[in-house]
Amino acid sequence: MSQILAPLTIEEKYADMIRQRENEDGSELSILNLGPTHPATHGIFQNVLLMDGERIVDAEPTIGYIHRAFEKIAENRPFYQINVLTDRMNYCSSPINNFGWWMTVEKLLNVEVPKRAQYLRVILMELARISDHLICNSILAVDTGAFTGFLYVMQYRERIYEIYEELCGARLTTNMGRIGGLERDLSDTGFRKLHAFMKDFPPAFKEFEALVSRNRIFMDRCVDVGGISAEKAIGYGFTGPNLRAAGVDYDVRIATPYSSYQDFQFDIPVGKSGDTYDRYCVRNEEIWQSMRIIEQALANLPEGPYHADVPDYYLPPKMDVYNNMEALIYHFKIVMGEVPVPKGEVYNCVEGGNGELGFYLVSDGSRVPYRLHFRRPCFIYYQAYTDMIKGGLLSDAIVILSSLNVIAGELDA
Amino acid sequence: MALDYTVVQEKLTAKFGEEVKDFTNEFSMLAFEIASDKNVEAIHFFRDELGFNFLTDVCGIHYPDNETARQFAVVYHLHNWVENVRVRFKVFLNGANPEVESVASLFASANWQERETYDFYGIIFNNHPDLKRILNMDEMVSFPLRKEFPLEDGNRTDKDDRYFGRIPQNTNAN
């Protein structure tokens, strides 16, 4: 089977390079392990760096430390049980993953989602985007030495999680939504919390921006660090804020609107040089744009059902399951995966926190997918990291990693 | 002239003739199959002639029930951002010896995605810059997403799904 010779290990490869350089100019290179567990990498991935003093000569990333074989597990589970796999990918913005998965299934099953559910999904997805970008930017500030800003905004992520709780009871791994809509309407408490968040968050975030954005030290650490050109970024498969920071205005919400995104007015912020500071600014501006979208969605939230009328796929209310024979049968059929599923191949994508989150679902008509592939944006753009840090300083590598917002769960799936 | 699927299909047929086939338009995406030795040429054609500037996704599929010559497939998703058109195509590979040319020279993003496909299916990408395992450990000998690998140890006696009418896809019915 394996026609491939065992490749040189990283240590062997680097030992050769060290000897070579020593013979050439007498310089002493050294190998440095960054990770797998290091507080500055925010996740479990390793980079073996070849260092010349403080400069990085070469780097070799090793990933897969929290690989959980989601694609294999998904081939053995009915659709409802796959949802819990998706929110463990990008756990900073799980609702986007959840709804992305439901939309894929709805596309396959040809289920039309009612307007109210679509708007509520938009609200939740934008809240997720805010919490995703918020943690990325505030941790970027922490990595440059500014801890205070992080503390100012972190309680607002908590407030977002409380809104999730009102809908689904969970906070981090939300397992939110159902085929055809949501599991319940957002409660009055949920709306109250949402309105309070909309009122309290902007001043706090303005304060954060005032502290960090034009901070001399922060700018010195970020401007012109880890820049990437638009052509290169596209070649490396960048999507999302990291691509937009390089000046390309590709956004799935605009390119192929889903869940009624065409109803909302919002701008796509773009950067210019694709450096760390641009990525920071793009994410900040996207938070404001997300606020804009939520405001519009709240103002125009339609009345009506919060889920589609698809008894074959939508779990009946628990009250009926215990008291009503038909509901019990439907509940049983759905949970056991005895409902009809068409054959077909479908690709669906949403704008995740880090870019185009795609689901490629091959269904052979059985209760489980024949094949399910997750297009994880992190995994694809992280391969540019080596290129971005070569020749730079070690401290820059930390900041670049932080600003790319590589989420280990999404990287390794 | 907008680049719609009939135009793409015509241009492809003009260029590749018999080697491109099975056009479908399922869930508003054009999908087709192409001969396994034409994948680089096809992606080159899509990138330079038809303006598909973005390689969205590369992944593998295992079809153990097909005849030997078509037991593996590599699936490419391409996207033209200017016209906002997506296509998907498959190349089918031999089950005994799955080999295909790498497209990492055309799109740098294919590098890790092909490594992932190799890691899980054992599909060899020729002329790949650094083909080795990526998510699994280097010492591993199996290719876990192939259908013959069960998710769980088949010898478990404490958990028999057959009593619930379930037969996992990748195990024998008895």
How would you characterize the overall build of this protein?
The complex is a heterodimer of chains A (413) and B (174). Chain A is mostly helical. Chain A folds into 2 domains: 10-62, no CATH class; 70-412, Cytochrome-c3 Hydrogenase, chain B, CATH 1.10.645. Chain A has helices at residues 10-25, 70-74, 79-86, 94-109, 115-143, 148-168, 188-212, 216-222, 230-235, 241-245, 252-255, 276-299, 318-323, 325-335, 377-381, 385-389, 394-404, 408-412; strands at 30-34, 46-52, 55-62, 343-351, 356-364, 371-375. In chain A, α4 packs antiparallel against α5 (115-143), α5 (115-143) packs antiparallel against α6 (148-168) and α5 (115-143) packs antiparallel against α17 (394-404). Chain B has 174 residues and is α/β, with parallel strands linked by helices. Chain B has a single domain (19-149), classed as Beta Polymerase, domain 2 (2-Layer Sandwich), CATH 3.30.460. The longest helix of chain B is centred in the first third of the chain and has 12 residues, at 5-16. Classes of the chains: A mainly alpha (413), B alpha/beta (174). The interface between A and B is large, with 49 and 45 residues.
Shape label of chain A: globular
**In percent terms, what proportion of residues of chain A is strand?**
5-15%
Order of helices and strands of chain B: HEEHEEEEHE
- Overall geometric form of chain B: globular
Count of DSSP-assigned helices of chain B: 3
Q: How much helix, percentage-wise, in residues of chain A? A: 40-55%
* Helix and strand composition category of chain A: mainly alpha
**Order of SSEs of chain A, N→C?**
HEEEHHHHHHHHHHHHHEEEHHHH
CATH class (first level) name of the largest domain in chain A: Mainly Alpha
What is the terminal separation of chain B in angstroms?
57 Å
Q: Biggest interface pair, residues each?
A: A-B, 49 and 45 residues
Q: CATH-wise, what's the superfamily of chain B?
A: NADH:ubiquinone oxidoreductase Nqo5 subunit
CATH class of chain B: Alpha Beta
- Beta-strand residue fraction of chain B: 25-35%
